[in-house]
Amino acid sequence: MRCEPRIQSDIHVYPTPKLNMRFLIALFAGLSALLPLAPAAAQSTRLPAPVVQALVQTGIPETSAAIYVHEIGAEQPIIAHGADRPLNPASTMKLVTTYAALDLLGPAYVWNTEVYTTGTLQQGVLNGDLILKGHGDPKLTLEDFWLLLRNLRDRGVREIRGDLLLDHSYFDAAGYDPARFDDQPTRPYNTGPDALLVNFKAVALLFVPNRDARTVKILAVPALPQVQVVNNLTLTNGACGDWVARLKLEAQGNGDAARLAFNGTYSWDCGEKTRSFSVLGHRQYLGGLFVQLWKELGGTFTGSVRYGEVPPDARLLTGTKSETLAEIVRSINKFSNNVMARQLFLTLGAAGAEPPATFDKANQSIRLWLSGKGLSFPELVIENGSGLSRIERISARNLGQLLLSAFRSPMMPELMASLPLAAVDGTMKKRLNGAGVSGQAHIKTGSLEGVRAIAGYVLNSQGRRLVVVFIVNHPNAGNAQAAQDALLKWVYSGEGVRR
User: Fold this and answer.
1) Residue 154 has pLDDT above 70, yes or no
2) Is the pLDDT of residue 329 over 80?
3) Which of 76, 230, 315, 447 is deepest in the core (most CB within 10 A)?
4) What is the pTM of this model?
């Protein structure tokens, strides 16, 4: 996962999808009310002394940093240092995806997951196939899926004398390679998008030490029969430290089945820890989960699990709705959830054109939306909308312009509330504790090997709000936090703001 990001130009050619009327209305609504964007002529490239000092101490040249600071309502930025270079923004790219989604879909948008049948129900017996159809819910959890099946049981279905059909045709994510980013396909953040994604396709392993028995128990949730866990761990004393490295994991398998063998040590001082894995294909995971939960609910199923689409004569039995988009966006930005961001990105592709959604359709939808906002980002490269990419690019200035546009938008409260609050929650919870800017900055963070980025809003000591963007692309970027925190403190102090 360790490598220096490379600057790449956007060489893709994106087809123009067929847009539906609802999407067009949302796309071009309010164009006449757009405020003129700030010109780029007069600007300062001089960095605050605390930022310069922090960069020197961490071995990051100023030429590897891009900084953009702009007070809300001002015509010119306070700082625009290296602001026009296309850089890898890491997870701050989620700001593009989530703002576009809030504006185009609306904060009350929800995803439906539906259960259909082609058969008849008599005395608890369903004579026919059961069909699950998904529309890309980014957060269909294990609990939500259990409740959906519980609802099905409450409606009188006990025995299913047919197959389970999985209709995931709303998305077309063919060709997604979970190993492409960092050659770690079993890491949950690399799980590919799917219209019927359940529980992020993850198996969580809970490590539970027992001092009296001198053992470590490993509990799998969910405990799927296709995933074999071999526990050869030895319980030890001493500091917890890098407990993951001491597990000595040997992973084998494919999309149909997997074997996870642990042969190392586990310290009592670690207490209970959890580590998640994504080791099965989408069909195998969802099928295994359905069979397990349906049996636990007292149901009977002996058919096969296969892909298929809902036929025209199918009858709707039940369904479930997701959290609202406003809630989903909070989960995506507060905790930088890459899987949910990719689901949302593809949803934009389905909403802006005819399903199935593709990455190209989603990309084109965002570019049309930006154009409708009067925003021109010629350097923009979007691969999957999450920022977990080696090729995604945007400039600090244009990321700042996006935030300025968002602040003038009716969606401002939802977007700002979704960003981590410095020293309070999300990925900023452990940063800037005790500083004046604590609790005064809504900041989205981004982190990849060779990349560190922050972008968001700061309410300074004078009660004035500013947009702040700071992107570093350099082998020493992992040390950039001190410089970025120094900028946030400087902005909060009010220095540089025109009085």
Assistant:
1) yes
2) yes
3) 447
4) 0.90
